[in-house]
Amino acid sequence: MAFKTIFEPFRIKMVEPISVSTEAEREVYLKKAHYNPFLLDSEQVMIDFLTDSGTSAMSAAQWGGMMVGDESYAGAISWHNMEKEVQDLTGYQYILPTHQGRAGERILYGHLGGKGKVFISNTHFDTTRANIEFSGAVAIDIPVEEAKNPMLDHPFKGNMDVVQLDALIQKHGTENIGAVILTVTNNSGGGQPVSMKNAKAVSEICKKHNVLFILDCCRVAENAYFIRHREEEYAQNNYREIAQEMFSLADGAVMSAKKDALVNMGGFLALKDKSLADACKNLLIITEGFATYGGLSGRDMEALAIGLKEVFDEDYLHYRIRSTTYLGEKLKAIGVPIMWPVGGHAVYVDAKQFYPNIPIDEYPGQVLVGELYLKGGIRSVEIGSLMFGKYDEQHHLVPANWELVRLAIPRRVYTQSHIEYVIEVFAELMKSRDRKNGYRITEEPQFLRHFTCKLEPVNA
Asked: Which residues of 367-391 are buried (b: 16+ CB within 10 A; e: fewer)?
């Protein structure tokens, strides 16, 4: 019998206290943080949905693995355990450990990029785009048309537009394509999954044009869940087998293991080609550490290897996806406009629809981020024109494709009552959403401005 109650397939052995604050206190905290949640201290936050990256609760087996971590500088046992696990999962021979995903991105895309190079993706995430653009290259997003309508119910809104892909490769020339990057799941596109059919089509086009095909695979287990439940021909495959088939279609992969490897720090770059791997290894040693630790401690590598096994557990993935969907369904039921269907790691609220009275250049997503914190102590992140917007030659804002707020749910951290509280906070925000003003940016860096920019209310 299928019960309605979401059953967490774990018991809690250790707890961490939450500092409960008042709305008046949070008003002071937010002002001191210049209305940017990245500048808040963690003790000022009650429910932290800023990111699912590195925020997971590790298992007893992972903590046990950390106790036996081999901290040798070269050739550590823990490195070999990690290497073996990643090789088995990806099918790639050459594995480079990195302290997190963006280190792998910097090494690979810095090597492949440069002025005149073009990278094509279903949607580049913030650090991916920043590393590509920092090299002087251009990053182009080509999500499928269905992805552009947040409320449209489509099973694989994370897919890449393969017609555009073929046309762009021909337009720019094979020699100018740094890589084609398929992000699974599509984080910037609302955490939406990518179908195996789409991955195969992308692979075929890349092979036809002799273009490098890379998976950004930090949520590959969650993506495998959706493939099994939405592509009929994979209904009998286990989740790990589905992920392994997707890896077989690509030439390499970058992973921030801080997501689907259930660790607080770690990542890797995995490649088929020896010459490319050797070039990247040189950069790894120069900037991150020796080739058998790459900026990671032995205990981190041990926990990573264990996490890559645990994440494909049937009960865990059912709980993970179902609990995220529960939050989305409840918010939708009370009238909150969300990206539909709900993705794997987060619920994305359509801030443009939530605050239709706030102009895009006053960042409605950031307004919702601020109100969630003020009303309920909930920290979230804007994924819209603050994060991805650019300026034209007249310094006018060129908006992003969406104005979203991401509620990224840490793995194995929050309970059902925390989620019910979040729903109550949204119900309160619904009552006053026509009476809010926007923000203006007062200070910003050149790259990744959302991390450190400062803002103020437009009526300040």
From this structure: bbbbbbbbbbbbbbbbbbbbbbbee
Please, are residues 244 and 227 in contact by the beta-carbon 8 Å criterion?
no
d(CA 19, CA 384): 29
Do 382 and 412 fall into the same domain?
yes
| Straight-line distance from the first to the last Cα atom of the chain, in angstroms, rounded to the nearest whole number | 56
For residue 8, count CB atoms less than 10 angstroms from its CB and return exposed for 0-12, middle for 13-18, buried for 19 or more: middle
220 CB burial (10 A radius; 0-12, 13-18, 19+): buried
Residue 5 in domain: no
pLDDT of residue 274: 98
* pLDDT computed for residue 401 by the predictor: 85
Cβ atoms of 160 and 194 closer than 8 Å: yes
Question: Where a domain ends, among 269, 291, 310?
Answer: 310
Nearest by Cα to 394 from 361, 350, 434: 361
Per DSSP, the three-state class of 175 is helix
How far is it between the farthest Cα atoms of the chain? 62
Show the low-confidence residues of the chain (pLDDT under 70).
1-2, 460
Domain with residue 33: its CATH number is 3.90.1150.10
407: its two tokens: 């509620």
Assess whether 354 and 426 both reside in one domain. yes
| Domain harbouring 115, CATH code | 3.40.640.10
Domain with 137, as residue range(s), is 60-310
Q: Point out the domain boundary residue: 310, 335, 365.
A: 310
Q: Could you tell me whether strands 390-391 and 397-398 are parallel, antiparallel, or unpaired per DSSP bridges?
A: antiparallel
Task: Tell me, yes or no, whether 130 and 91 share the same domain.
Answer: yes
What's the pLDDT at 98? 98
State the total domains in the chain.
2
| Cα distance between residue 411 and residue 391, in whole Å | 36
Q: How many CB atoms lie within 10 A of CB 150?
A: 21
pLDDT value of residue 197: 98
Confidence at residue 112, expressed as pLDDT on a 0 to 100 scale: 98
Task: State residue 1's pLDDT score.
Answer: 63
Q: Identity (one letter) of the amino acid at 169? A: I
Residue 460 has a pLDDT of 56
For residues 295 and 428, state if they share a domain. no
Which tokens go with 279?
């070039």
